[in-house]
Amino acid sequence: MDELYSLTCGQIRKLYNSNKVSPAEVAESVLKRIDAVDGKIGALVNVNKDSIKSQLLSIKDKKNGAFYGIPVVIKDNICVKGEGTTCASLILKDFRPPYSATVIERLRQEGAVLIGKANMDEFAFGSSCETSCYGPTKNPWDLNRIPGGSSGGSAASVCADETIAALGSDTGGSIRQPASLCGVVGLKPTYGRVSRYGLIAFASSLDQIGPITKNIEDAAILMNVIAGYDPKDSTSAKIPVPDYTKSLVNDVKGLKIGIPKEYFVEGLDREVEAAVKEAIKKLESLGARCDEVSLPHTRYAVSAYYIIAPAEASSNLARFDGVRYGLRSRGPKAANQHLIDMYKETRAEGFGNEAKRRIILGTYVLSSGYYDAYYLKALKVRTKIKEDLDNVFKEFDCVLTPTSPTPAFKIGEKLNDPLSMYLSDIFTIPVNLAGIPAISMPCGFTAGGLPAGLQLMAKPFGEETLFKVAYTYEQNTQWHKRKPRL
Amino acid sequence: MDYEIVIGLEVHIHLNTASKMFCGCSTKFGGQPNTQTCPVCLGLPGVLPVINEKAVVLAIKTALALNCKIARFTKFDRKHYFYPDLPKNFQISQYDKPLSYEGFLEIDVGSSVKKIGLTRIHLEEDAGKLIHREHGDSSMVDYNRTGIPLLEVVTEPDLRSPQEAYEFLVTLKNSVEYLDVSDCNMEEGSLRCDANISVRPLGQKTLGVKTEIKNMNSFKAVRLALEYESGRQIGLLGEGKEIVQETRLWDGALQATSSMRSKEEAHDYRYFPEPDLLPIVPDEMLIEETMRGLPEMPRRRRQRLIEIYELSEYDASILAREKKLADFFEETVREVNKPKIVVNWITGDLLGILNEKGLSLGDICFGPGDLAQILTMIGDGTLSGKQAKELLKEAVETKKRPADIVKQKGLSQITDEAAIEGAVDKVLSMNQKAAGDFKAGKEAALAFLVGQVMKETKGKASPAIVNQTLRKRLI
């Protein structure tokens, strides 16, 4: 038998059902794997070694739970009561929330075992996991390369078998891009499908929590656990949650898939392009109809995003001021007791460069006199982008694109070139602006052995379509079975 | 040169919901610091607000009563500024789509009525309270108040004197009390007021440069601050100086305003729509139902009191100002159908006692039934007017029922003619001169004799019977 840590939720559930292994053995296997490989990868910022025993005790009566005994890693911007939750930022160093996020409550209710917290770009600002105050996470396929971001720790931990599944958050591609770069599955659910209560907000109108898993089935299982209306989140939808595992059907016959021409342009890596086009052919051979479509406003998506997201971020991050929790500067001026100086020095010390860049940008675009020219205009672009997609979904069941224009790049390569870094999310950002669901899954490898990913989008609350198409593709390919040599 | 004063007010009113605007914490006043807080109102990382629907209903009720239009689409916005009493460093408020707009409130100005325009009424959350230690080097923050639902009422610059501003506030407070949506207690901070004031030469159309006055903790302080500030502004203009647009603080001890921050230092609040909350589209049915359920407001009630009970304008005004007082009156009249007598007892004696003790109707146990009892006892001759007044005072002070006091003290009036005749005889024998005077036609002598009989009976004799008996004897 394969090592337990390398299995999927689906496989482990079968073993539990036939009483072949216990949650303790699975947890132990995962912890051993973490000990063995995380030194190289740096995916986790905190491993709950001390609490595993008590967690195993408390799930004893949850054998029927949908996530019973499954180890899961949580991105470090999701609050877990009493456990460090830092957003990989110095300003939240030592912060322990007195409450848990709704997704955590749901996981615990269904018997999950929380293994630890995953590294990320500071406050989810980044596409490479390099802006973390803990230092970068490395891509398990090539330790000189980034794992993608911001949920880079979550994706790398799944990829390196340091966990069975993980939760990430996605504001502009932060689940899908690292999933693509690490060769795993990542789903950004419809805005409102999963409660955001307890997710430390980056951009409230774009953020969604979602699963990062080893295959499509696991993503469906994890979605069954975390999706659904939450009275604590006014933006969560009062729409019933289907059993997503019922969409795991190996059949795409008659389905219409749109291929937007705006996504196959200059800047797209040739090998990635080839892999995605090969995938299109595969789906066609399985009975899907793939036609070119146009999403004309795609080219404005990154610009609009870099106004809306920083605007909301500058507001959401205003609360980190040293008054109540987190870092309080002991700097020279803060010591002279002036409130303004304490604010300034705390925020200067506590936030990294990218966070500062976005706070400044967001503050600027919301300033009186600039609001209409920037923020309001960006909102109009956002509406146009959504209209483009609405139109396509009138005729097509889903849209297929590359997830990221390039495979994983080298650590340090884009860190000082924010524009080029921002362009890593060029294909994922429109999905967040439109509030629709999208999934990334592996669809090939470059000659250098780096994973390439494809992205499927569907209309709002069309997760079932995504699972169906993705599952069919996965059942007829072998990409998800490859593992990095560590 | 003569100047015209132009004033606009911003009034903040705590809504009396049981829980806060965006979380389930209690809104009760006076708890130990930071005991009525939760992750949501403390603005901890990751929390989300949820709208208290009761607050929205109360806000709609108030807006309708103040003749406002209700927006069919309204939303919340974030208003940003850094201050330790604001845990998120933004306040959830309303910016360009307030809940209601274009209302008015009528106030009395001398003998005429003036309509004061209301620009808007919107909902927001309150901030916490900083407690500055007198000795020591730190300040403390109490977040119990953080997140309490606030109604902000903004007037047009329609007020023309500090007295009008005062009158507006009193009328607004009365209206809000009628609606039972707020405690309106300025000491507890459940009603607060800022003022914008400018002056201009009489006849000039354009507005002068305004200042905003803050930190006034009573209606009287508002009037005093505006009197001071208008004087200051007129003085400056008189000297040929310019008025600086700024925010000024009223100092009650110094009885003066002083500069807090200039226009350049003013905050840029960077408003933008609150992404964590959905816009509100008020239900038409709810608006209609609320409209139908509105109580009678003070001015209409005053009119009705005049028409139905034939009260004077003055008496009706006093009663209608305070809902509880008008209710007290109408309930008493229901039992003792003598409106004029009842109103005199309420506005004269009862309010006199309350004023003297610094109490309000809500503070005492004395109810309409108790007053009715006293008035009935006067009517059937059990009590004299003087006894009744003493009884009222005692009942208010001791919280005892009037009938019990009468029984306990044997306070009833002597109506037994034989007993009174005995007293009359005694008095007449001791005051033969006065008796002679009366017989000689000096009417005033009778009053003296009545007084002596009353004294003899320790005030218990019925004055009417004493009077009769004396006349009978002396003629």
What is the tally of helical segments of chain B? 15
Greatest contact between two chains = A-B, 45 and 30 residues
Largest sheet of chain B: 9 strands, mixed
Overall number of strands of chain A = 11
Question: What would CATH call the class of the domain at 4-248 in chain A?
Answer: Alpha Beta
Average pLDDT reading of chain A? 96
CATH architecture of the domain at 4-248 in chain A: Alpha-Beta Complex
Q: What's the mean pLDDT score of chain B?
A: 91
Number of domains of chain B: 3
Secondary-structure element order of chain B, as H and E?
A: EHEEEEEEEEHEEHEEEHHHHHHHHHHHH
CATH superfamily of the domain at 4-248 in chain A: Amidase signature (AS) domain
Helix percent band of chain A: 25-40%
- SS-based class of chain B: alpha+beta
Q: Measured on Cα atoms, how large is the radius of gyration of chain A?
A: 21 Å
Spatial ordering of strands, largest sheet of chain A: 1-3-2-4-6-5-10-11-9-7-8
Strand content of chain B: 15-25%
Shape of chain B: elongated
Tell me briefly what this model is.
With 486 residues, chain A is an alpha/beta fold.
List the helices and strands and how they pair.
The complex is a heterodimer of chains A (486) and B (475).
Chain A: H1 9-17, H2 23-41, E1 44-47, H3 52-58, E2 71-75, H4 102-109, E3 113-118, H5 152-159, E4 165-170, H6 176-182, E5 185-188, E6 208-213, H7 216-226, E7 256-260, H8 270-285, E8 289-293, H9 301-316, H10 339-350, H11 353-366, H12 372-395, E9 398-402, H13 418-422, H14 429-434, E10 438-445, E11 451-457, H15 463-475
Parallel strand pairs in A: 2-3, 2-4, 7-8, 7-9
Antiparallel strand pairs in A: 1-3, 4-6, 5-6, 5-10, 9-11, 10-11
Chain B: E1 3-14, H1 53-65, E2 69-70, E3 77-80, E4 90-93, E5 100-109, E6 112-125, E7 129-132, E8 139-142, E9 149-155, H2 162-179, E10 191-201, E11 211-216, H3 219-238, E12 246-251, E13 256-262, E14 272-273, H4 284-292, H5 298-309, H6 313-321, H7 323-335, H8 339-357, H9 368-379, H10 385-398, H11 402-409, H12 417-430, H13 432-439, H14 444-456, H15 463-474
Parallel strand pairs in B: 11-12
Antiparallel strand pairs in B: 1-9, 1-10, 2-5, 3-4, 3-14, 5-6, 6-9, 7-8, 10-11, 12-13
